[in-house]
Design goal:
Elements: H1 5-20, H2 27-37, E1 46-49, H3 53-65, E2 71-75, E3 79-80, H4 89-100, E4 107-111, H5 116-125, E5 138-162, E6 166-187, E7 193-208, E8 211-220, E9 223-227, H6 235-255, H7 272-286, H8 290-302, E10 306-307, H9 316-328, H10 339-347, E11 360-361, E12 389-392, E13 399-400, E14 408-412, E15 416-423, E16 429-433, E17 442-443, E18 449-451, E19 468-475, H11 500-511, E20 515-524
Parallel strand pairs: 1-9, 2-4, 2-5, 3-5, 10-11, 13-20
Antiparallel strand pairs: 5-6, 6-7, 7-8, 8-9, 12-14, 14-18, 15-16, 15-17, 15-19, 19-20
Length: 525
């Protein structure tokens, strides 16, 4: 029996009324109640994002600017301790680090193992495995540590019935869940956790009705980041955002680069969290003084203000370089590595600071014996004698048995920066000095460098008995920052498409033609 006309009209009106009734609003109270549960200040800046891909590209540029290279890391399986997610968290991390190193090639990540015992076994035998000619310095370990479903849940329903013709009902529900990711960086030398190099972040996911309502909320440095979630991805997309955020944070903390600029913090001195971060960095490095001095020796040499050793010791040249850079930042010319200078350095846009005509050049004490040192004295002119380089093996050996270790001694005719490459049996070119174990390219004429020496890698004759060539280049100044990135690459990794002739041309251009080259030909017995 068809219902009367008035009943059908009433039914349509009832549907419209129930659908639009504000009484069934569940999303807003769920969001508000979840915000109360989460700790932290209530009033925070809001930013809408589609992901942290911009932050990863920003980090790539930042790593280039700060001269970060040869950061090698293992990553173990990132487990889901909650047993509620089915996602490849480690694969997400690998992708994130890859995006962060597109141009800088600063970080190389190796996937390995599921437990620490496996990693320890791997590290013990890495040098004897052909796939790994050098031991990675760091290991990333962690897990999805929290997934609280239905942290806050609201449901409202109502109905209207006219027996026997009409029986209508409507219901709305909304619930929030919290997902957390904890990662830490360990040193492979003793598998100890690096103090302060950790990432602990969480995201709130809002679910409404039968699908995700497109809301994920992240917090960092007092900023709320909101991201729309695709219905088909939901939790996995929210987890990817956590992983990308963790990658930015871990690499930034490890390399002491101001990663917060890539997360929207424009004034780190006005942000309480970044102020504490900079405070911790400064005092951890200043505790022994050597690390802090070496940090600025490296940075000022890269920026053309200093030409001298990176040894963690003060000298007249680095004092002059510090004074000049402080002045460029609008500070006093005191040669002080104080907190004010450190904070200003991390907050500066270094691309706007022009390089000086000449760096403050280090002069060995023996060269000025009996003369008073003057930090403000002009840098001496380069020596007139042409730069030469010697590369040799003990007892002038050039022939080696298959698998036999090769030890080399590098000695420039004057203090110089030296860079060594190997063209292997497959004609692939690999940079092996400077490297992750010895980042300073400068070699004093009075102190020859032994390779590999105490560094945790080995050089050996290939098992095929095919001749190989080692080419070393010496320049008066550090030219690494001026080389094309494809000629730098990652240490111990083949440079795609590179040849020794191309590398020679790159050094010629970067040094203005002032380069010395010495080849060492490795032959089988």
């Amino acid at each position: 029996m068809n219902p009367p006309l008035f009943v059908r009209v009433l039914a349509l009106a009832a549907v419209a009324t129930l659908a639009g009734c504000q009484t069934f609003e569940v999303k807003k109270p769920t969001v508000e109640q979840t915000a109360e549960v989460r700790k932290g200040p209530e009033d925070r800046p809001q930013r809408s994002i589609t992901g942290f891909s911009y932050s990863l590209r920003c980090m790539d540029t930042l790593l280039l600017d700060y001269g970060v290279r040869d950061v090698t890391m293992l990553t173990e399986e990132i487990t889901d301790e909650t047993k509620k997610l089915n996602a490849g968290t480690r694969d997400m991390l690998i992708s994130s680090v890859s995006d962060m190193s597109r141009r800088s090639r600063a970080v190389r990540l190796v996937a390995f193992g599921k437990d620490t015992l496996n990693v320890v076994s791997f590290l013990a035998t890495a040098q004897s495995q052909g796939a790994y000619q050098a031991i990675p310095l760091y290991d990333i370990k962690g897990s999805v540590s929290q997934f609280d479903e239905n942290l806050i849940k609201n449901q409202k329903d109502g109905g209207l019935g006219i027996f026997p013709y009409l029986n209508l009902g409507v219901a709305k529900d909304a619930a929030s869940s919290m997902l957390a990711l904890d990662l830490s960086v360990l040193t492979t030398s003793d598998m100890g956790v690096l103090p302060g190099v950790t990432s602990r972040n969480s995201v709130v996911i809002l679910k409404q009705g039968s699908g995700f309502d497109g809301d994920a909320a992240y917090r960092k440095f007092g900023i709320n980041y909101s991201m729309n979630l695709a219905r088909s991805e939901g939790q996995t997309q929210a987890l990817r955002g956590l992983v990308e955020l963790a990658a930015v944070e871990l690499i930034g903390k490890l390399t002491k680069t101001p990663y917060w600029t890539c997360l929207g913090v424009s004034d780190p001195k006005a942000n309480e969290e970044t102020k504490l971060e900079m405070f911790d960095w400064y005092h951890s490095m200043a505790a022994t003084r050597v690390e802090l001095i070496a940090y600025f020796q490296n940075q000022l040499r890269r920026r053309g203000f200093y030409d001298g050793p990176i040894d963690g010791e003060f000298n007249p040249a680095v004092d002059e370089a510090i004074s000049n850079y402080r002045e460029a930042l609008g500070l006093s010319r005191k040669a002080l590595l104080d907190e004010e200078f450190f904070y200003a350095f991390l907050a500066a846009d270094h691309t706007k600071i022009p390089r000086p005509a000449q760096p403050a050049r280090y002069v060995p004490p023996t060269a000025v014996a009996g003369a008073p040192a003057s930090p403000s004295a002009p840098a001496p002119a380069p020596q007139a004698a042409p730069l030469k380089l010697s590369v040799s093996a003990p007892k002038q050996q050039t022939r080696f048995a298959r698998g036999e270790s090769i030890n080399l001694a590098l000695q420039p005719s004057q203090d110089a920066h030296v860079y060594c490459y190997l063209q292997d049996e497959d004609s692939k070119v690999i940079r092996f000095f400077p490297n992750r174990f010895a980042r300073d390219s400068r070699i004093a004429a009075a102190q020859p460098l032994n390779l590999p020496g105490a560094m945790r890698f080995q050089l050996s004759m290939n098992t095929k008995g095919v001749p190989e060539t080692i080419s070393c280049f010496a320049t008066q100044q550090d030219v690494m920052a001026s080389l094309p990135q494809q000629m730098v690459g990652t240490d111990f990794e083949p440079l795609p498409g590179a040849s020794l002739q191309m590398i020679r041309a790159a050094f010629e251009k970067a040094s203005g033609g002032k380069v010395a080259q010495e080849n060492f030909h490795v032959q089988a017995k």
